[in-house]
Every structure is written in C-alpha cells, then in structure tokens.
Amino acid sequence: MPMHIGEKEFTNRVDKGLGDDFMRGAVRSAQGRLQSNRAGAAEELGDWDQWRDLGQEIRSHTMENLDFYLQQLSEKVAERGGHVYFAETADDANQYVSEVIAKKNAKKIAKSKSMVTEEIALNDILEENGCEVVETDLGEYILQIDDNDPPSHIVAPALHKNKEQIRDVFKEKLGYTNTEKPEELTLFAREQLRKEFLSADVGITGCNFAVAESGSFALVTNEGNARMVSTLPKTQITVMGMERIVPTWEELDVLVSLLTRAAVGQKLTSYVTALTGPKDEDEVDGPEEFHLVIVDNGRSKMLGSEFQEALHCIRCAACINVCPVYRHVGGHAYGSIYPGPIGAVITPLLGGYDDYKELPYASSLCGACTEVCPVKIPLHEQLITHRRNIVEEEKKSGLAERLVMQGFSRVTRSSKLFNVATKMAPFLVTPFVEDGSIVKGPGPIKPWTNIRDLPVPQKERFRDWFKTREKGGTGHGQG
Amino acid sequence: MVKGDIKNREAFLDKIADNLGRARKTSGVERPRWSNQVQWSVLKDHTEDQLVDVLEKQCDFIHTDLVRTNQSNLNQAIRDVIKGWNGKNVVTWDDPRFTTFGLTNQFKSWNEEDGITVNQWDASSGEESIRLAEKADVGITFSDITLAESGTVVLFSDQGKGRSVSLLPATYIAIVPKSTLVPRMSQATREIHQRVESGERISSCVNFITGPSNSADIEMNLVVGVHGPIKATYIVVEDR
Q1: Which of A254, A359, B52, B137 keeps 20 to 30 A from B193, CA to CA?
Q2: Contact at 8 Å (CB) between A95 and B56?
Q3: Do A81 and B208 make contact, defined as CB atoms within 8 angstroms?
C-alpha cells in the first residue's frame, strides 16, 4: 500500500469519515485516553518542557549533521558484518529488498510494524514476487486480514475498528469462534502468529532510532512481535527513514523517554530492543544475516528548507491525538498513511502539492499540535507556510481561496458537516479572537473580518440552547 | 567477522550536504554540550533501598509481581512463583550467576520434589535450544541492569544468554540482584556509551524489558500478554 490511501478526492474522503459514526466514536474515545495518558506522564515527570527543549536540540543538531551521522552509522553496521543500502527512492529500496529475498529463495516474510515500508508499498512488491508477507503487529495484522484496510493512525493503526468488527473479520477469514472480548481476540492472534514467527524465512522491521556511534538501532514496542521478528528468522532486513537517527546511546535515552511518554503515556514500553549487526557467531538466536536499508524518498528535499524541522518528528502521534480535525474526520480522510497535523505537513512534501494541496487546510490552526509536540516542531506554523506556498503557486488561478470557499459552501449544504462545523466554531476561531471579537478570521469569514469584527460564536449553539429550553432548562447560554 | 557491504552511499550523502548548503562532513562533528541535563535529576540521591521501593510501586503499573528476598531464600522464592503458575518446564540462561547464587545445584531437587524440569540455554545444541525454549512454560534470566523509574530489566545477549529465554515462554521471571538497580534508563545507556567509546564490543541484542508483553490495539483496551510473556515476576535479591 503506497503513501496514498482511499479515494482520490479529499472531499469524498472527508464525507466518508463524517458519515462513519462508529469510527468517529472510536476516534473520540481513543483520543481522550491517549491525551490524558500523555498529560499524566508529562506532569509526573515534572520538567516536561525542559525535556522537550533537550529533544528539540538533539534533533536539530542531528539533522544539521545528518550526512556525518549516517556515514558513521553505515561504517559501524558494516564493521559488525551488516550490509547497508542507501535507497534514494521507494523503487530503489523495494528492489534491494526484493533482491535480498530472492537470493535467499525466501517465501515467508514476517514483518513488525513499520510506517516507512507502508510509505514505499513494500508489501505490494513482495507479494507480486510471490512471497507471503505476514504483518505481526496486532493492529496491522487485523488490517491485513481485512483485505488490506489502510491504517488510520501511526501508533494504533486499527483505531477506526471496533471489537465486533474485528471479531467478524477473524470469524470470516480465519474461522475464529470466540467472542469479541479483546483478550480472546488477542490470544487467538498470539496462537496464529506464533506459527508464522517460527516458520518465517526473513524478518523485516522498521526502526525507531538508529544509534550512529555503534551501528545499533532500537525498536520501541509493546507486543513482543518485533522481538520475534528479530530473533527467529535467519535473515533480517531493517528499513529506516534516513532521519531516524541519534548520535549516541545517551541521546537514544532522551528520545525514547520522550517518545513513550508522548505516544502512550508510558515511562517505557514493554520492550525497547537495541540490535547491533547480525547475531554473534557463537550465539544461537538472532539473524545470521542483517541488512539495513536507509530511505530518502523525498526527505532530503526538506533539508535546508523552511520545513527542515518536520524531519525532527519521532512519530509519537501526540499531535494526531489532540487534533480537533482528526477527531471529526478520522485518519482515512487525509488520504495518506501519515494523518493528522504531522501528516498534513509531511504528506505534501513527500507526495507533492498536486495530490495533497488540501491537507494544509485540514487544520483549524488552533496550535494544540505544536503545544504537545515532544520535540517542539512548530506544526501549525508549518501548515501556514504550506498555505502561503500554495497561494503563491496558484496565485494566477486563485485556486487556494477557491478551495476554501468551496469548502465553506459544502459545509453549509451538508447538515452533518454543518453540525460539526458549528460545534467547532468557538474552538476554531480562538486564535483570532481579540477582546471578545474576531478580528482576523480564517477562510470564509476572512472577507467579512477584513472590514469589520465578528462576534465570537457562543459556546452553546442556538440549536442546543433551543433544545435545552424546550426541555425546561435554564435557557441561557454559557458563552 | 567479515565486513559488510555499503552501497550507494556517496551520492546519497552528497545530496544531503548539498541541500544543507555546505560541503560534506566526513569527520570532526562533535556532540555539543546540551543546554540542559534534565534526565540526571530523576531519582537523584535515592539510596538502593529507596530505588527498590520505586521499582515496587512501578511494578503495579506494569502488571508485574515483585518479590523481595535474600540469597538464602532465593531458591524457595523462585520455586514458589513457578508453582503458583503451575509451571513444569523451565528454561534458564547459561549464566554463572545461577551458580554463585546457589541455584544450579538445586535444580535436581526441583525435579524430584516438584516435578519441574530445568533446561539451561545451550548454544552448542543450536536450534534445539530454541525448540526447548519454545516448549518451556517458564523462562528465567538475571537482570544485568535494573531501571527503578520504569520498572525495567536490561538484558545483554551473549552465547549463554539467549534472546529466546525471556521471549518465548508464556511466563517470565527476572532475578534482580539489588546491586543492579539504577535510577533510570540514562545510567544504562551511559554505561553502554562508555563501552562503545572505549572500543568494547557491545552485545548484538540489548533488551530493555518492562513487564509482560501487552497491546492496546483493539479499541485502546489494554490486553496483557500478546506475543511475549503473558505474566512476569521480578525477584529482588539482597546481594551485598
């Protein structure tokens, strides 16, 4: 599955998301839990902001010296007997992995979760080559079994599905006979996948952080599947985005500490597995052969540009978990395997404005994303930069403003959208409020506020106020 | 060890340097002195006993039982945990600490009195040792470094210390010598960093293990026990 997912038209995808009541309920409750877990972990640590400063500083130094650290990493991996392949494009990476697998005459591939292999659509290529590819992360496994349903969240890929849907998929595809209890579903997956781990010829993993000084790389996981994939198959291939690297083990500590707290509110996940090269000759378990594939696929364009900081991302999804737009439209509406605020920043950079010019507008610019980012990426500012670029690029056609106005008329035409939009209005305009009035409104209200101020929307909508009054409530709004 | 291949590197890194608007850097990059060292203030000045208390509290959050004991009661404490799980088939690391802590010569009586079979990880038997670990219902290792803050045991792999022992059996016991306790991950990674700097070869696999495996992939409901162990117990033993 390539980076692009779902229907081509952004508006159709949004409609689909807004119409999916179950998905929206699932996203709401997941967001709530993830947000409070993160906030709890940050509060417990006490000096969270200092940790974020440190994270930002480390990421910034590493990106400024990325060529040096990648060179050091590759030397150290090779010294330990591992092979390193630098892949400029998705095709290069897929071709190299295919060649390694062909040489091994391998048929069964066990994979642990990896966003970059989703991005380059590695599974499609391997399946075309006649390999059986088994996704072993529980969420990814569920999606794969369900006819390759795309992921909707970078940490919890099956977030949009409920347990009844998962039970039905297991029943239909795998002959599962138990209930929808998550414990029973999970135990079933354990039994199914144990056989796959033991019989896989090749293991493929992603990489959370490579450590330049020793040629190591760390996998941050909870389920134990990445440990299986890096313990049992004889050949291991690890695919990493080129920016996923730290100078030394000391920086690994800081970034892992930020990642696990920001992602799920854990002090550490169940497993942080740091691997260096293939197994030693006198060891029994672990791969005999190790390949590291370092992928550019458009990332280098961000270096030296106004978007360089987007490369600081450590894929924790904290920005996704607080985003009010994601909350309403869900992950699939973004049309990219990278959804939410960070997805709206990097997808147009990796995939181009032609296909993704709407994404920078899929944001209320409320800035919640920037506030939670553990490495302080100025996400909402980068979205504004995108919008500026799009306006510049499309100035002649006036496309950008047209897009926004189209969006506005669509919203007013659809009752569902109108509901969502008016509920969100007080929140969306907060950044534009001065002394209780909107002075510089976004999108459709901009022409109006260019000449006069608009009163701030009431927190209680007229429709809600009316309903309360009919029921004999106080009848007065809070706004 | 034969050096591995490196392919397509120069053009790839030249492009990075180009985009950064400067010449390639192939040497001379030093880490700066970071403007804060906030990680070192966590649990600073805690005594070993206080760190055990922190570890014990954290174990509640990570669904892990913690047992405190001393060297003379260690054997019984481990047997009690295994019996509590109804374990019959144990795999352990081949680690000299099993002998120095007086356990190796007790394995025979485990079998005679409780019907518990113990297999030691044996690298010379190759694949057979993985098969034995897969069949075992209890895996036992020592902790090499223990992180109080997160409730983590750090395991360095080697010939006798197979990765499978802490992974394949459904239940897992980590023996935690009290002297292995440090405040948090920072102390462990600094030690590894120092080994790298001094040219020492680091383990092919360093596992930071925090309780049993788990997943929240189904409706964000936590399920304890996925592919790795389903239950875990840490046995903290006084060792000085």
Answers
A1: B52
A2: no
A3: no
Contacts of A128 (CB under 8 A, 6+ apart): none
Residues of chain A neighbouring B62 (CB-CB closer than 8 A): 270
Pairs across A and B, CB distance < 8 A: 301
Token readout for A168 is 């039905």
Buried b (16+ CB within 10 A) or exposed e, A368-382: bbbebbbbbbbbbeb
* A424 vs B: CB within 8 A: no
Q: Please state whether beta strands B223-224 and B214-215 pair in parallel, antiparallel, or not at all (unpaired).
A: antiparallel
| pTM score | 0.89
B4 vs A contacts (CB less than 8 Å):
77-84, 277, 290
| Residue ranges per structural domain of chain B | 44-237
Q: Identify the helix (H) or strand (E) that includes residue A399.
A: helix A399-413
* Residue A365 C-alpha, separation from nearest chain B C-alpha, in angstroms: 27
Q: In this complex, which of B4, B164, B220 lies closest to A84 when CB atoms are compared?
A: B4
Q: Is the CB of A203 inside 8 Å of chain B's CB atoms?
A: no
Where are the alpha helices (H) located in chain B, listed in sequence order?
9-19, 48-61, 71-84, 97-100, 107-114, 127-135, 185-197
Question: Are A268 and B152 an interchain contact pair (Cβ–Cβ within 8 Å)?
Answer: yes
Structural domain includes residue A319 = no
Q: CATH code at A158? A: 3.40.50.10420
* A456 part of a folded domain: no
8 Å CB contact between B203 and A168: no
CATH topology of domain B44-237: Rossmann fold (3.40.50)
Residue A186 to residue B223, Cβ atoms within 8 A: yes
Minimal CA–CA distance to B6: which of A252, A311, A229, A215? A215
Query: DSSP letter string over B60-119?
Result: HHTTEEEEEE-HHHHHHHHHHHHHHTT--EEEE---THHHHTT-GGGHHHHHHHH--EEE
A21 interfaces chain B, CB cutoff of 8 Å: no
Expressed as residue numbers, the domain containing A179 is 65-300
Q: Closest by alpha carbon to A207, among A235, A186, A229?
A: A229
Based on the number of CB atoms within 10 Å of its own CB, is A431 exposed (0-12), middle (13-18) or buried (19 or more)?
A: middle
Would A192 be classed as within a structural domain?
yes
Tell me chain A's radius of gyration from C-alpha atoms: 23
DSSP assignment letter at B166: G
Q: What are phi and psi of A206, to 5 degrees?
A: -90, -160
pLDDT tens-digit profile, chain A (479 residues): 478 888 888 989 999 999 888 888 889 988 988 999 999 998 888 899 999 999 999 999 999 999 999 999 999 999 999 999 999 999 999 999 999 999 999 999 999 999 999 999 999 999 999 999 999 999 999 999 999 999 998 888 998 999 999 999 999 999 999 999 999 999 999 999 999 999 999 999 999 999 999 999 999 999 999 999 999 999 999 999 999 999 999 999 999 999 999 999 999 999 999 999 999 999 999 999 999 999 999 999 999 999 999 999 999 999 999 999 999 999 999 999 999 999 999 999 999 998 999 999 999 999 999 999 999 999 999 999 999 999 988 775 555 556 655 555 555 455 555 555 555 544 444 444 444 444 444 444 444 444 444 444 445 554 554 455 555 444 343 33
A window 86-105, beta carbon within 8 A of B? 86-88, 92, 96
Interface check A247 vs B, CB under 8 A: yes
Q: How far is A67 from chain B (nearest CA, A)?
A: 5
Would the CB atoms of A268 and B226 count as touching at under 8 Å? no
Residue with tokens 């001094």: B198
Count structural domains, chain A: 1
Residue A357 domain-assigned?
no
B1, B8, B12, B120: best to mutate for the A interface, most A CBs within 10 A:
B12
